[in-house]
Queue: 2 jobs
Job 1
Amino acid sequence: MNQELTKEIAKKLMEIKGETRGVVFKTDTEYVLKEKGEEGLKKVEEELEKLGYPIKFKEIETMAFYPIGLRAISLLVIKEVFNFDDEKIKEMGLFATKTSLVIKIFLKYFFSVQRVFSKESPKMWKKHWSVGELIPVELNEEKKYSILIVKDFNLHPVYCCYLRGYFCGIMQMLIKSPQITSEETKCFFRGDEYHEYILKWK
Amino acid sequence: MEIEKNNEEKISTLIEDLTSLENYARDLLYFLPLPICLVSPMEIILEANTALEKISGYKIEEIIGKPVEDFFAKEEIEKLLKETREKSFTERKEINIFTKNKREIMVSASTMLRKSEGEIIGYFLGFFDLTEIKKKEKELQIKVKELEKFHKLAVGRELKMIELKKEIKTLKKEPIKGPSV
């Protein structure tokens, strides 16, 4: 590990107020198992223990609440242990949408892009996080793009990348398109007030 | 204070129950040897199991989010979904699945319509791989043809034998004409 995530950084992350549902660790678990197997998951658990924030991934309860900082720590440890680049983190986010139990709760609304975008996406956010807000800004089916804002949620830049994949994954399940791309056009960590994502499809 | 404690206990029990249910549903879905999937009204696959992964050659994360026509011939799947919308279900309809390595596998498909508050919210699709059955069917057809051929030969031979026997019988009845001395 290249020690990008120090004990001090981890401590600071743990001080962030808010909670997350266990489902986020579950989807990470499935991704690591798929990519790196049991041995890989063990490595992640060992590193988390060294940092002082042990997680037994298989004992996580999907709908239970966990400290929000732990989510960032878990993601950063996975990134460092396997030397994952941004594309891989994005892929983790995309993968999560395909395996998340919380998303399955919302599948009954996947008959309408408009409905999921405007009405359900803020609810999806609230089912995952006790803090922050997801605001659907614009959906233009004709010009094939949509804009989303994430407000009051400033976990870590690694999560900005993860969300790019996550939003693409949701769009894949709503729109028939060979290519869906995402870009973070505004970011709190780059000095903006909030995070803004633009999704485009062909 | 007491009420708060009670509520916390109730929430904790509910979370435990949800986890148990989730594990049960997941185990069942993964164990099920029959390929199944959930398709949205927009005809995009939203859920799949490991059996579908095996038969199609695609990974679950590749299947979910793909349009159904990537797996089936457009006209065939549209016909199947139309019938499902009309009758709420269909049973044992033969259809081909396109696999990742460009093979076509014939399956028997059964479907069920999902509705909520009068609105169509999706379709459940379940498949039974007919590859082995079709293979056996072909083998049987070959065997039947061989048997028919054999039957024809055997019957022909039998008829010939009967004819010969008759001839012998007739010959036996006739007085033996020896050479005149």
Note: Residues 7-84 of chain A form one domain.
Job 2
Amino acid sequence: MNLRRAWAISEKELRYLLRDPRSLGVTLLLPVVLLALFGYAINFDVKHIPLAVYDPDASPESRDLAQALTRTEYFRAAGTIGAPAEADAVLARGEAKVVLVIPAGFGRDIAAGRPVRIQTLVNGSDSLTASVALGYLEGMLGDWARRRAGEALPRQTRGAAIDPKVRIWYNEDLSSVKFITPGLAVFILMLLAALLTSQTIVREREQGTMEGLVASPVTAKEVLLGKLLPYVAIALADVALVAAAGRLLFHIPLRGGPLLLLALLLLYLLAALGLGLLISATARTQQGAYLVAFIGTLLPTLLLTGFIFPVSSMPKVLQAIVQLHPSTHFMVIARAMTLKGAGLAALWPRAVALAALAAAVLGLTAARFRKTL
Amino acid sequence: MSAPAIDVQRLTKRFGDFTAVDDVSFSVARGEVFGLLGPNGAGKSTTIRMLCGILGPTAGRGEVAGHDIVGEPEAVRARIGYMSQKFSLYLDLSVLENLEFYGGVYGLGRDRLGERIGWALEMAGLRERGDQLAAELPAGWRQRLALGCALLHEPEVVFLDEPTAGADPMSRRQFWEVIYELRGAGVTTLVSTHYMDEAERCDRLGFIFAGKLAALDRPDRLKQVREKGTLVEVECDRPAAAAAALQATAGFASARLHGAGIHVGLDEPAGAAAGVRSALEEAGFRVERAEVVGPTLEDVFVSLIEEMEASSGAAVR
């Protein structure tokens, strides 16, 4: 390994990058723009579900129940209906997603301590919202009933019912932004890194400069090292920008050790940049390389590596396959280190997997590169 | 100084069913300017690329600067300079940046690099244009820049693959001056070309056609050896029609256009020129001049190709 020769390659790549400041600017700013855009857009928190009420009882109790639901940020009042038959119409028109049907005599029965049946109609065509709404309804109706019972009955008669005190750790307010944003950063970095390096080898081949390189004493390893260095620097600059944006815009905490995160991040970047190089060493045209790098990193990272859909709920075969993708491992690391403050003791299997993948990708690229020379 | 700079034994390269280089053997002495002459697709580039260690040969062996091209490609690469047909220049980089890049890739130290870049700029006449992008250079300058890049590390053996293709005559002349300068310094040059005038400038010449080395000698000797008949050069009006008329006449079937005139090969030296003249005048052409001349390299080349195509039966190309 002759470092002078490797540096000559790096210097040349840097000059190419600096020759086109506009592309460089886009490269540096695009990840931040993407993070902001998707961070605000991708939101799984279901709030302000429109709820209509049919209340023939019109008692203080029934009004209290309806208000107890719509006072929260989970539901908003979407008016009242005059007949149960109108429920279909408001659900179909989308004016309400949930209709609460309170029976006549509700207030009287509650006051007398008799059991009451309440009907809730939920629009199930949007299954995600429907199941979230159901969860909210069950919990809130239960709360309301307990509160009522507590007021009406002496304390000791409440019996031995389990009264769970649930505490949520790590993401205390269950904000989906805090779950999504670290994954989004992982996704954006993969896309960026693979696209960055996907052009660099195939361009030399297309422009005929590869011949000059191959006839020179520079080795495949020196070329790869020389080509990696500038892009590692750019990717790290992007990491800093993305981290700052995550912190300022979405208040993502960093509870783990910053140095450990940086070290693992480097492994991840090497694997991702290496993937781009491998594509570049295999592709025939720059456009082909661009397309493969784009689709080959975008789709798996988006759909298969646990960014949105948990890996543990995938078929076993697919679970095994996605272990070969660096994003699968770094997705876990990024979330664990930002939200949970996990350390190497918990994450070392992921770190080892990441290192092995980076080494494999770069080794494969070196072999592939030598052959095409 | 006794070992040849390039020694090639039965070198062969096949791409699938296609044999690009077919059992080629030759050797080049140190300090010699060796030319590979042949039409496009004859196997010149493939031969050069194998000798530079870019392509692996299918069979045969080769030594460059005393090192085996298959066994010690690194040692070979450190001792050769290579200028490809596409020049291998980074068009988005400046003249200086290209030179600095190749200097770095060849591992030159800072001091030596500065000195060699100075030399290259001087040689290529690019001293005033150091900051100009390679893309903006005219073809002739770009070519000399590529040569400068290939010579930065002072290689023992230089491979130039059609270096002057598309260049104007002035640039080509300057280019050859550099090659002769290198020869003076003991550098070996292997140059491929399809220009006859350039082939004449080589110390020795290999004719390559359809992957085979058809002839190998000094340019003057090649012409002598091929001189088995008599060659008549004719200047007349309507040369294309005249050549066609001669071809249709018994005994003059070898007539063909040569420059603005016609060359006719004849077996009988006696009265050859007069015979051609009278045949043409009978056919109604006005003959300015008809005389016996020595063959040019082009005559030799064309007759070699005709011979090879005839002996291989089917059309080779």
Note: The mean pLDDT of chain B is 87.
